[in-house]
Specification:
2 domains; Amidase signature (AS) enzymes; 12% strand; 11 strands; 40% helix; alpha/beta; globular; eleven-stranded mixed sheet; 15 helices
């Protein structure tokens, strides 16, 4: 399967047509999608029309953008004008947004071809894509296992070859963890580096949109396209998109990289072994690698599961059966509210709404939500202290490889632990990404997480590029 970089170049030069590229990918979707269920909606007709428009513009000598003819999958919590956007929830039944998310607009301008809206844990709340109202997505590498979550559909779409690129959202690891489980690259940018306008909110101070791809260079290209200031998002950082493509092959000679001690504790031995091998590879490539303590990261999970549900409780209060989506018939308005929300939300969403409402309630706000925010500040300070001595940090992406369906559904706390390594970056607002690096004892992919300080994407991609090059070389040697 060609990379997005190769496809876009071939389409721009006329070596290939966008129509040919799209038909190849739609054929792969037709072959495996009934088994995998990566999509809530396949956009075959729209994709063919978009590809035909790209080819027309190429023939006319017009500019077609940096992603000319590249098939791309969108997580189904990104608004797409006139198309269903469900968040994999019954509560948004029948709703079609009247506008596009900013990232969707930027991708259209860049010539990307949307092939579908991908499945997710309902409202992005989950780590396995088992919480979707439309059924689970399967891991294309082993269909008895989960693809991770909440962006499991996007990760699976790239891993299955349905599209070379996909977008997801990451609130506590929802891009990086499924990327690790499916053996692809997943990137959570700096908070505010990519516009959240048109992303249906879960936890507004944590949510961030980012790329999935098969290669580090493809993620760099996609992030360059979607990043940059957006006046429609009040949290958008007022500076242009970073230049990342050159960083991928810049190497790590002279970089200082810290291996986070706390995030190696409680990790499966085979996963920890791959991370230490990754550290050795970077050292051999010229980086100075040492263990480092970022002590407050051990409190990340506890703080997150107060802050995120509290924000979710507030954000999801808008789904009341009045303005859009599902509406249950009832004798009075109070009963209508109750019955609509009872029917529209799944068990995990209800659990988090109740937890968040409790944390924000009178008498408990300071003890729980306020304390969690203080812990968040402590985590950020500990990261800042580490970055005074290191350019980037390293950890596992997830404590295990992809687990079997049903293995953790009866124990929410065990499921939440899947994000123990990824959550700290969201709390701090820092960028982080998962890079495939070898396999575990079960033969499933292991993801190594590269972390960097705020707006440190350039150095992050340097490290990721070096890890990918080493992993590719190791595969070739094998």
């Amino acid at each position: 399967m060609k990379t997005a970089v190769d496809i876009a170049e071939a389409v721009r030069t006329g070596e290939r047509t966008a129509a040919e590229v799209v038909e190849e990918h739609l054929g792969e979707i037709e072959r495996r999608e009934p088994e995998i269920h990566a999509f809530n909606l396949v956009l075959a007709d729209q994709a063919r029309q978009a590809a035909a428009d790209v080819d027309r513009r190429v023939a006319a000598g017009e500019s077609v953008g940096r992603l000319a003819g590249v098939p791309l999958a969108l997580k189904d919590n990104l608004c797409t004008r006139g198309l269903p956007t469900t968040c994999s929830s019954k509560i948004l039944d029948g709703w079609c947004p009247p506008y596009d998310a900013t990232v969707v607009e930027r991708l259209r301008v860049a010539g990307a071809v949307f092939v579908g809206k991908t499945n997710l844990d309902e409202f992005a709340m989950g780590s396995s894509t088992e919480n979707s109202a439309f059924g689970p997505t399967l891991n294309p590498l082993d269909t008895s296992r989960v693809p991770g979550g909440s962006s499991g559909g996007s990760a699976a779409a790239v891993a299955a070859g349905f599209s070379p690129l996909a977008l997801g959202s990451d609130t506590g690891g929802s891009i990086r963890q499924p990327a690790a489980f499916c053996g692809v690259v997943g990137v959570k940018p700096t908070y505010g580096a990519v516009s959240r306008y048109g992303l249906i909110a879960f936890a507004s101070s944590l949510d961030q949109i980012g790329p999935f791809s098969a290669t580090v260079a493809d993620s760099a290209l996609l992030l360059e396209v979607i990043a940059g200031h957006d006046p429609l998002d009040s949290t958008s950082i007022p500076q242009p998109a970073p230049s990342l493509m050159e960083a991928v092959e810049a190497g790590v000679d002279g970089l200082r990289i810290g291996l986070i001690r706390e995030l190696l504790e409680g990790i499966d031995p085979d996963v920890a072994a791959r991370v230490r091998e990754a550290a050795d590879v970077l050292s051999a490539a010229g980086a100075k690698v040492e263990e480092v303590s970022v002590a407050a990261t051990i409190y990340g999970l506890s703080a997150y599961y107060l802050i995120a549900p509290a924000e979710a409780s507030s954000n999801l209060s808008r789904y009341d059966g009045v303005r859009y989506g599902l509406r249950a018939d009832a004798s009075d308005i109070t009963a209508m509210y109750e019955q609509t929300r009872a029917a529209g939300f799944g068990p995990e969403v209800k659990r988090r709404i109740m937890l968040g409402t409790y944390a924000l309630s009178a008498g408990y706000y300071d003890a729980y939500y306020g304390q969690a925010q203080r812990v968040r500040t402590l985590i950020t300070r500990d990261f800042d202290a580490a970055y005074e001595h290191f350019d980037a940090l390293l950890s596992p992406t997830a404590p295990t490889t992809a687990f079997a369906f049903g293995a953790k559904t009866e124990n929410p706390l065990a499921m939440y632990l899947s994000d123990v390594c990824t959550i700290p970056s969201n709390l701090a607002g820092h960028p982080a990404m998962s890079v495939p690096f070898g396999t575990g004892d079960d033969g499933m992919p292991v993801g190594v997480q590269v972390l960097a300080p705020a707006l440190g994407e350039t150095v992050m991609f340097r490290v990721a590029g070096a890890l990918e090059a080493a992993a590719t070389a190791a595969t070739v040697m094998a």
